[in-house]
TrEMBL record:
Keywords: Hydrolase, Magnesium, Metal-binding. CDD domains: HAD_cN-II (cd07522). The keyword Oxidoreductase does not apply. It comes from Phrynosoma platyrhinos. This is 5'-nucleotidase domain containing 2. The keyword Transmembrane helix does not apply. The lineage of its organism: Eukaryota, Metazoa, Chordata, Craniata, Vertebrata. Signal peptide: none annotated.
Length: 462
């Protein structure tokens, strides 16, 4: 993690790479010649996007995770997690008191980042939405130590921070905050009810598999859906211990009563209206017979929720990606479209004109290269000054984006997006061109009309 040494506040140092305004030196050309009229605002933030063809008419059973799938949370929750874990580091792990100056910065980190803890060949990847405060705290502590010349062991530092964050969850602090003030932390409750009620009214079966405890889920669902929320679900499984739920056959299902007490009798069937704890997917499949493409499961974690279901069990999967809404709104801005279009034009000019090696041409090429780099940085900063888009790193998809494509049939900002589609709607993925396929950018359209550099010289080599 980088250190930012200045007299600025800790928050300002951490986010010091703020977006800067870079003049587009050929902006008039970009607007007038390279950007077709009406091209902005083409993408709908509330749309569902398909990686594979899938017909909802073939789906009979809908499954859901709870946190960040049925229940969406405000940024205030991340601030509480950050502040509490920071205080645990100071008060229990005896970290420097000066860390209290650091506060959570919404939008500082993005999912999909990797962190090298020098622990063998593997590195930590942050894929969970709940990992955003952990990444910010890790950056904050590292920033403090580097600015105060404090030596530290990277492995132990990461373990302390990870344990402090885990305490917030394991000890139930987060659950208490949310239960105490649902209105402050839970978003889109009415939409969650509308989605579930609509599916049930069309004779779809519903089930819930979550790692959260029943008392927490029960209070949240009563807030969003109503006191009879369990009537909508054919099965409710809590404290499932995903992703182990999908891979470990050993843990049996246990029935829970209204008070949360466990019954130890053998489970021979999963009954509607009952609550079950732990269990495993293999028993779930055996007891329900719910297999293959007639099942569609929604979750926010690409590994814990979706990967095994798609790769090993043939379920259809839907990824909930809250960041999608913000990113699409940025993509739809004229500033982004102008930057991206002129960047592509410069790339084409550099590629075709690099054959000219006289001094004047070399200088022009250097200017183009510099301007192209400035625009690339500007485009990245529009999403996130530190790390750019969650989906793309310059011209390549991010690791997160590649995993999203691999492990989800469809993806969307929230389950409320389902309300925009008929229950029998078929999603078709768009054909995206490979590098050698149909040109989409203005800089490529005339390539076939131009003389290919060095072609005559290549003829003599044959």
């Amino acid at each position: 993690m980088a250190s930012h040494k200045s007299r600025a506040s800790p928050q300002e140092r951490i986010a010091s790479k703020a977006t800067t305004t870079i003049p587009l030196r050929c902006q008039s050309l970009t607007e007038e010649h390279l950007l077709p009229p009406g091209v902005c605002s083409l993408l709908n933030p509330a749309a569902i996007y398909a990686n594979n063809e899938i017909s909802l008419g073939d789906v009979e059973i809908y499954g859901f995770d709870y946190d960040y799938t049925l229940a969406q949370y405000s940024n205030l929750l991340h601030s509480m997690i950050f502040n509490t874990a920071r205080d645990i580091l100071i008060e229990q792990y005896k970290y420097p008191e000066g860390l209290r100056k650091y506060e959570y910065i919404p939008g500082f980190a993005i999912r999909g980042l990797h962190y090298d803890v020098h622990k063998g060949p593997s590195i930590k990847q942050f894929m969970d939405i709940f990992s955003l405060p952990e990444m910010t705290l890790l950056s904050s502590v590292t920033d403090y130590f580097m600015n105060h010349n404090i030596e530290y062991d990277q492995v132990h530092l990461y373990k302390d921070i990870s344990d402090a964050i885990k305490d917030v969850h394991v000890k139930g602090m987060m659950y208490k905050w949310i239960e105490k003030d649902m209105e402050k932390y839970i978003l889109h409750g009415d939409e969650t009810y509308a989605v579930l009620n609509r599916l049930v009214s069309h004779n779809k079966k519903l089930f819930l598999i979550t790692n959260s405890p029943f008392s927490f889920v029960d209070k949240g669902m009563k807030y969003m859906v109503g006191k009879n929320w369990r009537d909508l679900f054919d099965m409710v499984i809590v404290q499932a211990d995903k992703p182990n739920f999908f891979t470990d056959r050993r843990k049996p299902f246990r029935k829970m009563d209204e008070e949360g007490s466990l019954h130890w009798d053998k489970i021979s069937k999963l009954e509607k209206g009952k609550i079950y704890k732990q269990g495993n997917l293999f028993d779930f499949l055996r007891l329900t017979g719910w297999r293959g493409s007639k099942v569609l499961y929604f979750g926010d974690h690409l590994y814990s929720d979706l990967a095994d279901l798609m790769l090993r069990h043939g379920w259809r999967t839907g990824a909930i990606v809250p960041e999608l809404e913000t990113e699409i709104r940025i993509i739809n801005t004229e500033q982004y479209m102008h930057s991206l279009t002129w960047q592509q034009a410069l790339t084409g000019l550099l590629e075709r004109m690099q054959m000219y090696q006289d001094e004047e041409s070399k200088q022009v090429l250097l200017e183009w290269m510099k301007e192209r780099q400035e625009i690339r940085s500007l485009s990245k900063n529009l999403f996130n000054p530190q790390f750019g888009s969650i989906f793309r790193t310059f011209h390549n998809p991010t690791y997160f984006s590649r995993r999203l494509i691999r492990f989800s049939d469809i993806y969307m900002a929230s389950i409320s997006c389902l309300l925009n589609y008929d229950v029998n709607f078929t999603f078709y993925p768009r054909r995206t061109p490979l590098q050698h396929e149909a040109p989409l950018w203005m800089d490529q359209l005339c390539t076939g009309c131009m003389k290919t550099p060095f072609l005559e010289e290549m003829v003599h080599i044959r």
